[in-house]
Every structure is written in structure tokens, then in C-alpha cells.
Amino acid sequence: MDREIIDLLWLGYEDVSGLWEITWQDRATGPTDRRIDTLVALLRSGLIEVARGPWSLDFDDARRLTSDEARRTLLDERCWKGPDPYDDIGEHVLRFVTTDAGFEAYREATVRGRGGPEPVED
């Protein structure tokens, strides 16, 4: 597992995160085929969940996207810029969390796989 995916899984485990908060190695802005493919693969593998809706809406209450919906939605550059204060329905706000399976994959890649320090859980 590459460092970028490890960082993404940690970000989604630490807190509900927006796409605009991900640090990508290529430093490009907006959607790229590689970014979309990465997120869809993680979603399809059950390592993350992606939801759409206003930033103020609790993640658990937001509508989850399927991998097919996510692929189409991720093509829109507005999804990569963060919440629009004038968008009450949050149509373009995408957030993600790391699932239990995703955290296990993260631990496998960091703690067991590389001998790195295990993150402290509260």
C-alpha cells in the first residue's frame, strides 16, 4: 500500500474528512483519473465510505454514495473545493470516513507491515 493511501485511510479514521483535505502527492487541484480511481477502488473495497450532503449534516445521516455514483460525482470539480456557504443541500460536499476494514488495512500496512508505531486510540 502506498503512502498516499495510508495517509488517506488515517485521515478518514481520525475524523470525518472532506475531499479537499486529502494531501495528494501530485499536488494538482481538482479531479484526476488517478484520484477518482483511487477513491472508487477504496470505496468498492469497503475501506472507506463516501457521503454527500451539507457540511452541517451529521455524517451518519448523510446519503452514502455507491462506487458508480461516486465515480460520476467525482468528475465535478466543485466536489474537490469544500463546502459552498450558499449551497444549503450540500450537493457538492463529499466527505469520507475509513471503515473498520480500512483501519485494519491501515494497521496492516503501518504497524504489522512496516514496523511503524501504532496510532493511539482514545
Topology:
Blueprint: H1 3-14, E1 17-18, H2 33-44, E2 48-52, E3 63-64, H3 67-74, E4 94-98, H4 100-114
Antiparallel strand pairs: 1-4, 2-3, 2-4
Helix pairs in contact: 1-4, 2-3
What general outline do the C-alpha atoms trace?
globular
Structural class call reads: alpha+beta
Mean pLDDT: 87
**Widest sheet: strand order?**
1-4-2-3
SSE string = HEHEEHEH
Biggest pleated sheet: 4 strands, antiparallel
End-to-end separation in angstroms reads 25 Å
Tally the structural domains.
Answer: 1
The amount of beta strand, in percent, is 5-15%
Low-confidence stretches: none
Instruction: Assign a percent range to the helix content.
Output: 25-40%
Keywords:
four-stranded antiparallel β-sheet, globular, 4 helices, single chain, alpha+beta
Descriptive account of the structure:
The chain is α+β, with helices and mostly antiparallel strands and 122 residues long. It has one domain. It has helices at 3-14, 33-44, 67-74, 100-114, and strands spanning 17-18, 48-52, 63-64, 94-98. It has a four-stranded antiparallel β-sheet. α1 crosses α4 and α2 packs antiparallel against α3 (67-74). The chain starts with a helix and ends in an 8-residue tail after the last helix.
Short description:
The protein has 122 residues and is α+β, with helices and mostly antiparallel strands. It contains four helices and four strands, in the order αβαββαβα.
